[in-house]
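Hi everyone, sorry if this is the wrong subforum. Our group has a chain we'd like a structural model of before ordering constructs, and none of us has done structure prediction before. Sequence below.
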Amino acid sequence: VGTNQGGLDTGTIANTTYHVWLIKRSDTGVVDALFSTSTAPTMPANYDKKRRIGSILRESAAIVAFVQDGDMFQRKVPINSYDATNPGTAAVTVTLQVPTGINVIAVGGWRISNGAGGGVSALLTDLATTDTAPGVTISNAEGATNANDGASFSVRTNTSAQIRYRGDFSDTNTRVRMSTIGWIDTRGGSGVFSGVGTASAGTAGQIPYFASAGNSLTATSTIFLLNGNVGIGTTTPTQLLTISKAGTTANANIPNGWLCVDDDGGCVGATAVTIYAKGGTVTGSTDVAENYYSSISLETGDIVSAAGGKNIDKATSTSQTVIGVMSTAPGVLLGYDMDNRANDSSTYPVALAGRVPVKVSLENGPIAIGDRISVSSIAGVGMKYVATSTSSGQPTVGMALEPFDGWSPSTGSGQSEYSQIGKVLVFVNLGQPQIAAKGGTGDLAEMTANTTSLNRDLNINGFSILNVKSISGMNGLWKIDENGNITAQSVNTQSLTIGGGIASGVTIYDRTSGSPTCIYIEGGVIKTSSGACGATTNAGTEAIIETAPAADSTNSPQATTTPDIIPTATTTPDIIPVATTTPEIIPIATSTEPVATTTEPVIISETDSTSSPQAATTTP
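Answer:
Right subforum, don't worry. Here is the predicted structure as tokens:
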């Protein structure tokens, strides 16, 4: 491409600055080079992408030779750019031999010669900055009386390759000379921004705004501005700040800093390595905390209790509203700004979960790993929880993760110190204990050989076992299932209560047939029904119960024949004494002794020690 003019976009070759561009066609992917005196070159047909890669100088009909090292361009031969005698004390504009059309950092050297009249304090500055009178305290070069002094300089130029010189003394013996060594050109990176289209003017300290037709950016620079949004690694930022990198991850690093996010512009961070948000903060620590207020001074490690609303107080041994521990360095802090109270000194972070140091005492003895921590008689200070009749239900704040026996580690002197109060790391887990870690016959952690069984007896010190689904004995000989049914081989008890209802009763299984029969009481009458109690719906029948007198040990064996059954008289009963020998028929007595009205039959049998039993043959 080109116009047979050595790669120029337009015009003819001249002594001036030429900007070197790489250009590309998106449709074919063809890449070429172009030279232009403009920062907005005329593109050949179908070429729609470009990037300036540098600028060259043409002087005395030849390209100035240079050496490039990254963004540093050095003329192979430095050139004198300024030589003036008695330049005066007003500002002087100096033109250097660096590229025009762009801003660069001119690099060079200067020399000031003075006579007996006096020395010079001078300033070399960017023309975009305020013209300032130099002096002993404001200068970047000094020329002493009757001396030749020199210095190097690096000053930003305007687009006409110019800088400003100003000295505080000048006479006929004052001579100022400057030479150009090279320039620094960032070429669209590291602070000089490039893009397709026309750049707005902008002001010093502002990023130029680039936009082509349709506000679509296609330049290859790192940072872009589009419709007020800043894009890093993307040409289409959709938010005030959009970080994106096609085909890979986009990371953001804030070394030793903080990040603050809110919805009203009032968020202010204070601590490095912290993320602040409206209502909370996130750091790298290990506990979750929430802000509360207190009218008294609290310290880290204090155990606290609720005092109403968002207020807290030091917990005591009688507190039933223990809510947590004063956090040392919350990992996640909720309620960061609370109600935006002016006095933040009354705001305290309370650890609700996680690992925190907790103040403890030896009031209940040394603390071991695994012990639950409750509140001691000292406000805000914990102790080992020990189950007693009076401590049942006392709140605990968590489980000790390290032991405490009062001795602190050796100091630099090699001596340990003893104190009744110290701090231990505790895993915050609020609750009321059911089983103490150091209770009964052993430590639960030691008693557990694995996660499914214990290897010794367990004593729970009078506490309850709650929410048990079922319990089974060894070899399945007894159990209590989740429906409340008890299965056992035998029951030995002082009393047994059988509840009412259609399913109540006692089920007995026939020894021969194995069939169940339900025995129950209904309307005061003992009844039986075929089938198990609760499973049968048959109408029951009244149970018949027979009684017989005990055999006399002095008599002969009972007769094997069926004895006569003599009904009980409904009038004055006959009294029939039992014979000790051969029975006789005895007349009916005339006694008027009342007779019971029972209708149960009575079995009467008589036996003789020498003969078979005989039944009475007379009717009473």
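For your construct planning: The longest helix spans residues 444-447. The CA atoms of residues 552 and 558 lie 9 Å apart.
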